[in-house]
Amino acid sequence: TGLSGSMLVAMGAFGLGTYIKFIPKPVVTGFTAGIATFIFSTQFKDFLGLGTPGALPPNAVVPSEFLEKLWYLGNHLNNTHLPSLALAGSCLALTLAWPKSWSKVAPPQIVAVIVGTVALVAADAVVGGGSHAGAGPFGIETISSHFGAGAIPSSLPMPRWPEGLTSLDQVAPLFKPALSIAILAAIESLLCARVADNMIDDKHNPNTELIAQGVANIASAAFGGLPATGALARTAANVRS
């Protein structure tokens, strides 16, 4: 992470970010559509409640490829968890029906999260929790039941040196993977920035973007974090909110 961050800083410092202008617009359009499709496919399982215990066979591994994933989940539609589907569908409907004039004051996504959480807590007070630890009423999964009680740390992380890294000889084998991460991060982030430019009628500075992203990754490495890039989903949510 830190090595790829350093490479990103170097890319920005040497002006390599300006080459993003040579990427054709159809590539940007395809990239946007591909990201949207991928995000949809990753949420499909939980939207239908197929992540609840017993919905899928024990130790089942959902395929990562888009078409294979849809085929696999489609074969298990009969196991859809109706309470989870009802809650997810209601939150989606609230998000879509939220008046645009209210979005600047209260983003519909945040409202949907709050309303859904309050509804689950209220139902829990009336009918009690689910059958497995941490679950909400009617067996609806929560962060605690899905990831465990300690999924969200109760304290901030502290800076630390990477475990096992004791000499520069250990850095050499990491150069190629770090370079791949840096290139992919640069392309993805600058494509996201270009899409965001079209949304807000603005123009970003690609070299500044790369330097800032590199610094962020170096800081992430200091706290044991993973490589970070610009993401179209979160960028679009920020723009529209």
Structure characterization notes:
The chain is mostly helical and 241 residues long. Helix content is 59%, strand content 0%. It contains ten helices and no strands. It has helices at residues 2-13, 25-47, 66-74, 82-97, 100-103, 108-127, 143-147, 175-200, 206-222, 232-240. Helix 2 (25-47) crosses helix 8 (175-200).
For this entry, give a set of tags.
241 residues; 59% helix
Give a short synopsis of this structure.
The protein has 10 helices and no strands. It is mainly alpha-helical and 241 residues long. Helix 8 packs parallel to helix 10 (232-240).
**Beginning-to-end CA distance, first to last residue:** 30 Å
Strand percentage:
under 5%
Our Rg estimate from Cα atoms comes to: 21 Å
State the shape.
globular
The number of helical elements comes to 10
Structural class determined from secondary elements: mainly alpha
Q: From N to C, what is the helix and strand string?
A: HHHHHHHHHH
Which regions contain 5 or more consecutive residues with pLDDT less than 50? none
Question: Can you give the helix content as a percent range?
Answer: 55-70%
What summary fits the major beta sheet?
Answer: none
Q: On the 0-100 scale, what is the average pLDDT? A: 82
Number of beta strands: 0
